[in-house]
Amino acid sequence: MFNYDINQMSIDDKIGQLCMFGFDGLTVNDDIIDLIKKYRLGNIILFARNVQSAEQLFNLNKNLQKLALSSIGIPLFISIDQEGGMVTRIFNGSTFFPGAMTISATNEVKNAYKLGQIMGEELNALGINMNLAPVMDVNNNPKNPVIGVRSFSDNPDVVAAYSTAFALGLQEYNVVATAKHFPGHGDTNIDSHLGLPVIKHDLERLKEVEFKPFIHAINHGIKGVMSSHINFPNLTQDEHPATLSKSIMTDLLRDSFGFKGLIVSDGMGMKGVVDKYTTEEACVRAINAGVNLVCVCHSHQPRIETIEHIKQAVLDGRITMETLDNHVKLILEHKKELIHLDLEQSYESIIPIVDNKKHQQFSYQVVEDALTLIKGNPIKLSDKALYLGILPAVLNIADDALGNTKLIGPVKEIKNLDVNIVELNPTSEEIQSYVQLAKNYNQVIFTTYNGNNHEGQINLINELAKLDNDLHVISLRNPYDLYYTKQIKNYVCLYEYTPNSIQVLKKYLKGEITPKGIVPIRYE
């Protein structure tokens, strides 16, 4: 569909190919028209703010590609963070996919591969050709505030197997899979959206744990790797995040690991980089470090400022023409696979793909198969039971709101179950009020939501455990509650708070299913 001669491309055209920007809007508006036409923007990142329905998303992507082809002559990479589970950008009119730890809890690697295929088919049909997934971080720090169940496991071999299978499934449908967050975001207790985490492990330990999934994926042909805004002082010998480090992005990832694909930055407005530099300057440094696509997620500033700053760096010789051309050549080589773009098809023609009952049923079944009994006995619901539940909350910038108040609906339909909502981090006074309420019941069900980072939930478990009733704790996200209290007698994990998991929870409470999942983390 497109031909290029890099020698005929202007500096503006080349710089535009290195940029992947976000914007506001559900349609092609003046803002994005200006970025593509005037500033030659070559790539887009979509967020939930850009997605209202499958049909709207399909039309948006088709019109974006038409605009790029008519203005620049080169198609866009249109990317999205569609990990599944708690990081989902597409809610309506297509399949709601399970998250990483849910998939690995089924103990079936083939589920990861099939879900990757299904997601790849749907994303491709909707006009998305790059998925900023899967997460290949080994979540071996139970206090991690941003990864958790977005990781497949705390075991590097499990992460390697499942994440690579998922990636290969995606790529069967011409969707670039992007392993993140290199060299690894698993062993951190700081969210790189909010600060610069530091991982001080030496090279031998990193090879044994953090590097393993990435190397495995590279050896099996993954096409994208996303950098992390984390400082690895034993790799860099300085205080810079990996994204800005040539020793990590080029010497390690390119030269040592032999990665031939695209290096994509994490969001360049995150605190992990902008504590030290502006977004604009950080993008220049990332390009020189070896990053091919710099990602500015902002819907307004500093997108144009970033392009202008990069251009000035080229004119000043801070970014050499050789560096610029090498990045552009690699990007365009990967874009050649977009030659089969069909911008004339109708939304009606893809409905059988994106609104597919078999896809939806398989995704649901994976969540049901992941239901894990870690300790104690399955529940036998009493005639009158108390349900204390925490609603899902947006805990970091990666999360999306999932219609929090509505998700609990199926549980409220259960007869003889009194449902009460608990605050995310209940105070001592609130805990006492819940305990007083619980004294009126023989059975209490408490659903936690990242109790590992909300001490009030653990305190509530400990107080409820003192009562003489049948207490069942069910985690609906990170499965680490047993790390922080030994007072749980009956513990079940579901790994996500999503429409599918709440349907599974309802069936479990009614005694219609038995847990058969395997917990993907290690308990001491």
From TrEMBL:
Keyword annotations from UniProtKB, A to Z: Glycosidase, Hydrolase
The record's annotation in SUPFAM superfamilies points to: (Trans)glycosidases
What molecular function terms (GO) are annotated for this protein? hydrolase activity, hydrolyzing O-glycosyl compounds
Question: Biological process (GO) annotations?
Answer: carbohydrate metabolic process; peptidoglycan turnover
* Every Glycoside hydrolase family 3 N-terminal domain range: 11-332
The yes or no answer to whether the keyword ATP-binding is present is no
Note the superkingdom of the native organism: Bacteria
Give the protein family.
Belongs to the glycosyl hydrolase 3 family.
> Per its UniProt record, what PANTHER family does this chain match?
BETA-HEXOSAMINIDASE-RELATED, GLYCOSIDE HYDROLASE FAMILY 3 DOMAIN PROTEIN
- The name under which this protein is listed is Beta-hexosaminidase
